[in-house]
Amino acid sequence: MSVGDVTGGRDVRRPSRHIRLGDGAYRRVLQGFGLFVLAIFVAVGGVLFIQAWPAFRHSGAGFVTGTNWDPSRAIYGAIPFIVGTLITSAIGLVLAIPIGIGAAIFLAEYAPRRISGALGMLVELLAAVPSVVYGLWGFLVLGPIFQNTIEPHINFLPVAHGPPLPVGVLLAGLILAIMVLPTITAVTRDLANAVPATSREAVYGLGGTRWQMIRTAVLPAIRVGVVGAVVLGLGRALGETMAVTFVIGNTNAIPNSLIAPGQTMASLIANEFTEATEPFHASALLGIAVLLLVVAVIVNVFARLLVWSVSREVRETV
Amino acid sequence: MTSVAVADLDRRSLIRQSARTSHRRRQILGIVGACLCGLALCIALLPLVSIVIFTISKGIGAWSVNFFTHIPTPAGIPGGGIVNAIVGSLIMDGLAAVMALPIGFVVALFLAEQGGRLASTVRFVVDVAAGLPAITIGLFAYAIVVLPEGHFSALSASVALAVLMLPITIRAGETAIRTVPQDLWEAGIALGIGRARVARSIIITSALPGLVTASLLAISRAIGEAAPLLFTAIGSQVFATSLGQPMASLSLVVYFDGIQPYPDIVRTAWGAALTLLVIVMLLNISARLLARRMRRFTR
């Protein structure tokens, strides 16, 4: 490779007519851009908080402890939406964790390599399907199935009483489970594939079956990483807007049953913000966004720290 | 036979028997475990495959020449299309990419090239920001663009999408730049051409396929988002090309038309969903193929 190849054919020995950026200046420009991006994300929180301040002052502590949301009387309590968000996310994770981990173990340990590769790619592509498409399918396909064939059979349960509807908290949780499945499956499969062959062979050497190998060599090794993936999935579920808005039923009350309609923080904002003309209404919705942001930041920081500790562990053992 | 011998025999057969049952139990347990895992994979794939099949079968029915060349018609009047939403999505995503990609790649260069506390802080914040709910980013764009201007606009939607694209662009860009061998950096520095020139002439050109992959992934993420557009672009029934006006987008059509009670409007939602799915899949598959080719190339 000659000098000319690298510098685009120009002779670098001759002083360039352009002002050359010195190394120090170049460094500082890069740092400047870094700071700029940092500032943008700090500004997201700051701007939302400033916009939400009037509602925080208006409602006081009642904003996070109140169970009533009535814009026409300027009463804003966020509890129904906090509860709705927690319930739907919890349902989503409870359903997605065993299925996602089981599917990942099958892909990594049982399926033939070629099938595993193809199915793995399929799962990863499905993670890219836009959330509105999940929502549309949930609303028009899964909702009616749910109402006609599932809800009539489970509403003898005390937690699922009430009339069968094509929308509700359980359905929203189910959609969230379907949405976080690809993430949990893909990460768990990658982690399982990274478990060193020596730990597997050690169990086989002791006469263990494949299942015992998975339980004693693979699962303990990937535990922390899987928790990280689950927490990342939780972050996605908490803030998911479009898919949930389609199927949750949009009722501003604490759901009294798993099949009752409800509202999450994100779906509330999506439903009411463009029509928020009552006093403090828009500001209160921005307050909900601040709560959502705080929860999302906490969850994601936790997830990153977990993932970071895993990668450090790997580095230390290598 | 003495009683000792009998006891001994008993014990031995007992051990043999227990070893056998344990072996059988382990095998049965193994089969049950494998079946459960296989079942989990089937359960996981069932809804995902169902989504794709339904979107294709219902969406294909909406596709026609008019669908891609006309603007929407009111419910009950045939011949409407979503050309305004397709163009709107392309405009808003294109502008968002123009804003986010250059900044994102410079920051990626910063993270790949420099260590130190600022770099690790930026990396951590960007990682956390990747998980922020899209709807809060939409409200941010509403507060800094729509409120001061006093009206909804495509520009505010582009700002929201750009903020949303930044974390993916930065982290995927950093990964791409880190694949450039250390030798190339050192060779460039040895030429005495300055770090800025090294970055521009050597590093960026070497990392280009990876940067294109990062761009495709970021654009694909942004084009499917509807939540940040709800209070910025808010959708439109007319053919708008001005950045200062509300604008239609594919993702908004899926949402607004999907919740309508009229079957022909709902069909439009399926058609838009299929269009979106095809675009997103094309972007993702080409990103993947490019990444694979790049890996082969570096090897």
Strand count, sense and barrel status of the largest sheet of chain B are: none
So, the CATH homologous superfamily of chain B? MetI-like
**What Rg of chain A, in angstroms, do the CA atoms define?**
25 Å
Q: What is the CA–CA distance across the termini of chain A?
A: 36 Å
The main sheet of chain A orders its strands as: 1-2
In percent, how helical is the residue content of chain A?
A: over 70%
Low-confidence stretches of chain B: none
* Number of beta strands of chain B: 0
CATH topology of chain A, anyone? MetI-like fold
Mean pLDDT of chain B: 88
Major beta-sheet overview of chain A: 2 strands, antiparallel
* CATH topology (level 3) name of chain B: MetI-like fold
State the name of the first-level CATH class of chain A: Mainly Alpha
Average pLDDT confidence of chain A is 86
How are the SSEs placed, and which strands pair?
The complex is a heterodimer of chains A (318) and B (299).
Chain A: H1 3-6, H2 23-59, H3 62-65, E1 69-70, E2 75-76, H4 79-110, H5 113-126, H6 131-154, H7 169-193, H8 197-205, H9 210-239, H10 242-247, H11 265-272, H12 281-317
Antiparallel strand pairs in A: 1-2
Helix pairs in contact in A: 2-12, 4-7, 4-9, 5-7, 6-7, 7-9, 8-9, 9-12, 11-12
Chain B: H1 3-60, H2 65-69, H3 83-113, H4 116-129, H5 134-149, H6 154-178, H7 182-190, H8 195-206, H9 208-223, H10 250-258, H11 263-298
Helix pairs in contact in B: 1-11, 3-6, 3-9, 3-10, 4-6, 5-6, 6-9, 7-8, 9-11, 10-11
